[in-house]
């Protein structure tokens, strides 16, 4: 009985250890603030290239080199394409899978450069999940040169976040971009500011085509003229 109890205790401790989140890497925002495990990030703006970019960085807090990748759950992708340029390499994913793997230094802190590129006007709201996975490092020596690469064994499961994409039709089809209940040159200035920022904020999408450009200025002028 004592042996059975010891065995069960060991199995329980092993299970608890497996369930713990690996703390080698963290998700952080543009200001360097830690994004907690289990957080939901809402992305509701297109940039000037028609992309809905995930505003996250990955930071190595271990101060030691480590092999890393993102497991990306995108099985709800409604339309368009999914692209990731994390950890020094780019690829497009069409189903759940890993971003490029790489060995990164102890001071690594870079954007994951992952985005959904929706089809223009194909409005949708959906969610994707991103989780940091830590891999073993394979060390090889050939002709006196040592190389390191990411292996295939997952040795740690880091934090996971949910990305909620909200690509909606513009709510400013009346031309009142700045929200002052009047359609005038101030709204044209607001559209120009949005274009200059390169954010493609849908508040400036007056004609509802999914982008903010000179066509929206023309729409405002038409509204002002009563056409």
Explain what the structure shows.
The protein is an alpha+beta fold. It has three helices and 14 strands. It has helices at residues 2-19, 185-197, 214-224; strands at residues 25-28, 34-35, 40-43, 52-53, 57-60, 66-73, 81-84, 91-93, 97-98, 102-104, 109-111, 114-117, 124-142, 145-167. The strands form three sheets. Strands 3, 6, 9, 10, 13 and 14 form a six-stranded mixed beta sheet that branches. Strands 2-1-5-11 form a four-stranded antiparallel beta sheet, with no helix packed on it. A hairpin with a 5-residue loop joins strand 1 and strand 2. The longest helix has 18 residues, at 2-19. The protein is elongated. The termini are far apart.
Which descriptors would you attach to this protein?
alpha+beta; 227 residues; six-stranded mixed beta sheet; four-stranded antiparallel beta sheet
Main beta sheet strand tally, sense and closure: 6 strands, mixed
Report the order of strands and helices. Answer: HEEEEEEEEEEEEEEHH
Q: Proportion of β residues?
A: 35-45%
Low-confidence stretches: 5-18
Radius of gyration: 23 Å
Q: Give the integer mean of the pLDDT values.
A: 86
How far apart the termini lie comes to: 87 Å
Global shape: elongated
Q: Can you give the helix content as a percent range?
A: 10-25%
Q: What is the overall number of helices?
A: 3
Number of strands: 14
Helix/strand/pairing category: alpha+beta
């Amino acid at each position: 009985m004592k042996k059975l109890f010891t065995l069960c205790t060991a199995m329980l401790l092993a299970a608890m250890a497996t369930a713990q989140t690996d703390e080698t890497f963290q998700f952080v925002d543009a200001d360097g603030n830690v994004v907690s495990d289990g957080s939901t990030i809402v992305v509701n703006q297109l940039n000037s290239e028609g992309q809905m970019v995930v505003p996250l960085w990955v930071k190595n807090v271990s101060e030691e080199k480590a092999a890393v990748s993102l497991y990306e759950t995108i099985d709800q992708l409604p339309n368009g394409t999914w692209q990731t340029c994390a950890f020094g390499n780019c690829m497009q994913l069409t189903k759940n899978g890993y971003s490029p793997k790489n060995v990164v230094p102890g001071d690594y802190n870079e954007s994951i450069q992952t985005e959904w590129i929706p089809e223009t006007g194909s409005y949708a709201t959906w969610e994707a999940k991103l989780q940091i996975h830590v891999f073993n490092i394979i060390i090889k020596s050939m002709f006196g040169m040592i190389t390191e690469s990411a292996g295939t064994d997952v040795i740690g499961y880091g934090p996971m976040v949910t990305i909620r994409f909200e690509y909606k039709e513009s709510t400013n089809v009346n031309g009142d971009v700045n929200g002052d209940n009047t359609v005038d040159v101030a709204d044209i200035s607001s559209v120009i500011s949005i274009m200059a920022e390169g954010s493609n904020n849908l508040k400036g999408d007056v004609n509802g085509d999914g982008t903010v450009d000179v066509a929206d200025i023309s729409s405002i002028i038409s509204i002002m003229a009563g056409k």
